[in-house]
Write a structure and sequence with these properties.
InterPro entries: ATP-grasp, ATP-grasp_RimK-type, ATP_grasp_subdomain_1, Rp_bS6_RimK/Lys_biosynth_LsyX. The chain is α+β, with helices and mostly antiparallel strands and 288 residues long. It is 33% helix and 26% strand.
Length: 288
């Protein structure tokens, strides 16, 4: 089988693991860069074209759709959606759902998955009203990854309105989310109906964000039955075949809340801290 790996760089940590796993299963890996995709419509040679021919692939694993504006990413997902009959994990619909923090929270709420109280708005005035009501909040852009653009504010800070206005101006809307006091968060990697690994992510000194890209560090931790159920429920809620589920535990009450579900997760912290490679399980999920 010819298995496409959607990514920008074959040497990136997770991409390299997926390529090796495809080869280990006696299949042929094909690196697919969605930034190079061409969609042909209304002509005899209608279809989706890339350098290596996406229509000839037997399956696709999406690792990294590439950076870009929402319009660019949307076009790439549209092209993937045109590949009828070719198994794709995760599906373009799932990736778009998880990329939109608003849609992802809606999907989680419908599945009765606990999440922090969250309001999405295009209005600076409305955002300020909810900040005043919640008190201590996290402001998030509607789309994003690796903790980029996320800030924590409290009502009464002199720059609150400026921060809100900046996010709305840059992204068109903003998410106002109740801050959950915690010591870092938990990343649970789910593949199919199994937990492939679990780590606690601890913020760097003087910071509150625990994303690895923001300087946080990962420590292996056990996945309790409650964590497992929550991670699996979250993955099902967004329709993902595999995902990285970010969960935070309230430092005072012990309550668990799902912050995000990443449909194109990195495997690095799980591999390095849990000493397990989830890539073969992802390949098996696609090919069986």
């Amino acid at each position: 089988m010819r298995i496409g790996i959607v990514a920008r760089d074959a040497n990136e940590f997770t991409t390299a693991l997926l390529i090796r796993a495809v080869q280990g299963a006696s299949h042929t890996p094909v690196l697919v860069k969605l930034s190079d995709v061409v969609s042909v419509l209304g002509m005899p040679d209608e279809g989706i074209a890339t350098e290596h021919g996406m229509l000839e692939l037997d399956g696709i694993i999406v690792r990294d759709v590439g950076a870009g504006r929402c319009e660019e990413v949307g076009f790439r997902m549209d092209c993937l959606a045109r590949l009828e009959g070719i198994p794709i994990i995760n599906s373009p619909e799932t990736i778009l759902r998880c990329a939109s923090k608003h849609l992802a929270h809606h999907a989680l709420a419908r599945a009765h998955v606990p999440t922090p109280p969250t309001v999405a708005t295009q209005s600076v005035r409305e955002a300020l009203r909810w900040i005043e009501r919640m008190g201590d909040v996290v402001l998030k852009p509607p789309h994003g990854y690796e903790g980029r653009g996320i800030v924590r504010v409290r009502m009464g800070q002199p720059d609150v309105e400026q921060r809100v206005a900046g996010l709305v101006r840059a992204h068109g809307s903003v998410l106002v989310q109740q801050y959950v006091p915690s010591v870092g968060d938990l990343r649970v990697l789910v593949v199919g109906e199994e937990v492939a690994g679990c780590v606690r992510r601890v913020p760097a000194e003087g910071k509150w964000l625990s994303n690895i890209a923001q300087g946080g560090r990962a420590i292996v931790t056990s996945c309790t039955p409650t964590l497992r159920r929550l991670a699996l429920s979250s993955t099902r809620a967004v329709g993902a075949a595999f995902a990285g589920v970010d969960i935070v535990q309230h430092v005072h009450t012990g309550e668990l809340f799902v912050l995000e579900v990443n449909a194109t997760p990195s495997f690095r912290s799980i591999v390095e801290e849990c000493h397990t490679d989830p890539a073969p399980k992802v390949v098996e999920l696609l090919t069986h």
